[in-house]
Amino acid sequence: MQAKKIVIVEDDRLLRQQISLALSKEYQIVEAGDRVEGETAIKQENPDLVLMDLNLPPTGKTQEGMKLLEQVKRNAQDTIAIVISGNTDMKIVWKAIEAGAYDFFKKPFDLNELKLIIRRSLQKQEVENENRQLRQALQTEQSFSEIVAQSPLMEKIFDSIKRVTNSPTTVIIRGESGTGKELIARAIHFRGKRKEMPFISVNCAALPESLVESELFGHERGAFTGATTARAGRFELANGGTLFLDEIGSIGLSIQAKLLRVLEERSFERVGGSKKIHADVRLITATNEDLEQKVKSGEFREDLYYRINVFSIDVAPLRERKEDIPLLLNHFVKVYCAENHIPPKEITPAALKVLMAHQWKGNVRELENLVQTLVLMSDENTIDLAHLPTYMFANPFDGTSSTEATAIFSMDEAVEKFERQLILSALARSEGVKARAAELLKIDKNRMKYLCRKYGI
């Protein structure tokens, strides 16, 4: 991960270099000696944090620092500003805070204390930025969720979300991978009383077992090899808000015991620490496993299972709510056309038949990823059979009955579809040269020309 960038604006060269040396191991540092240099550095570098004096050249008055602070808040709203100054006038201090300074340090100051404040402020900024992005994503999804609630199964889920939104109850969301369990967790959070507080998401299955405890509960400096600084865990960062633990079934029994204690006592200790930290956190979990079976086999604690299984939401796989497929397809086509600055495209009825027949074992995630590819692959205003991947034709009906298959394609349609796809694949491999494509297909050039005319290629 790229180091955060800090601009230090301080006219005392010795102090500036001292601060720079203390911070350079953790952060990218850019130095500036006066207000003008500071303004230039902030415009060019777009830093995560500005550490600045108020009494800056050219005049040496506090107005110079106030001008710079105003510029930071006007042009770089996400940038944190921390003021360091020898001025002890409380009017000046409050004026700086009101202008947007995150904190104020009086010279001389303790460098270790400054480092701690910088670390905490950047951590807080990271959480706030993540939550802003999540809110924006949710607003988009919320407007769409009104449209896809066409299937009775989805309507049932929306009703469940409304019922549990403002309750402190723990929620477990069950469903296959790719069904949108995290989106449901976000909807519960951002529609509820905690919406202005953090929403922190953790994929438990993606974490090495040795790091799960530190990731969830944080650690103190020196708690283990490599713990050079203290670090807040996800429970601490989610304080006042919601912690979403995806793939809860993947965590080990020792972490399950600590998680149970947090739910019962509402407090925990960091790894290597003894201080109790209060946790005002709503817990939402998700799983694609059979937790009841894991309880029976001794892989999951029964007492924890009952703690997290207070309110359950079951998300149906996409193959069981096919009424939503056309709406999802159209939605993602619009999204990715707009994102790539491409004119709107339509999915032809023939292509839609194939897409409706597909089993979507990867659920909405698979569908979204496919649409993203189709939008980029199609040079026309339509997405047709020719643009669909070959695996959709390897077993055209993907487990459907013969009656369903007949309803989708006649024998002639299936042969033509397969033939056209073969030609397009050969042309792609031969970079559009028809003569080379004919060689790959072991047909003569005249037949190749005929087939291209026949299928409008």
List the helices and strands and how they pair.
Layout: E1 5-9, H1 13-23, E2 28-32, H2 35-45, E3 49-52, H3 62-75, E4 80-85, H4 90-98, E5 103-106, H5 111-148, H6 152-164, E6 171-174, H7 181-190, E7 199-203, H8 209-217, H9 234-237, E8 242-246, H10 253-265, E9 267-268, E10 277-278, E11 282-287, H11 291-296, H12 302-308, E12 311-314, H13 325-339, E13 346-347, H14 349-357, H15 363-377, E14 382-383, H16 391-394, H17 402-408, H18 411-429, H19 434-441, H20 445-454
Parallel strand pairs: 1-2, 1-3, 3-4, 4-5, 6-11, 6-12, 7-8, 8-11, 13-14
Antiparallel strand pairs: 9-10
Helix pairs in contact: 2-3, 5-7, 13-15, 18-19, 19-20
Structure overview:
- With 457 residues, this protein is an alpha/beta fold.
- The protein has three domains: 5-121, Rossmann fold (3-Layer(aba) Sandwich); 149-314, 3-Layer(aba) Sandwich (Rossmann fold); 320-454, Helicase, Ruva Protein, domain 3, CATH 1.10.8.
- 51% of the residues lie in helices and 12% in strands.
- A five-stranded parallel sheet has the order 2-1-3-4-5, with helices on both faces.
- Strand 3, helix 3 and strand 4 form a beta-alpha-beta unit.
- The radius of gyration is 29 Å and the shape is globular.
- The two termini are 46 Å apart.
Q: Return the structural class.
A: alpha/beta
Tell me the number of helical segments per DSSP (H or I, 4 or more residues long): 20
The proportion of residues forming helix, as a percent range, comes to 40-55%
CATH architecture of the largest domain: 3-Layer(aba) Sandwich
| Share in β-strands | 5-15%
What's the CATH first level of the largest domain?
Answer: Alpha Beta
The stretches of 5 or more residues where confidence is low (pLDDT under 50) are 140-147, 395-407
Return the CATH topology of the largest domain.
Rossmann fold
User: Which word captures the global form?
Assistant: globular
Q: Report the count of strand segments.
A: 14
CATH homologous superfamily annotation of the largest domain: P-loop containing nucleotide triphosphate hydrolases
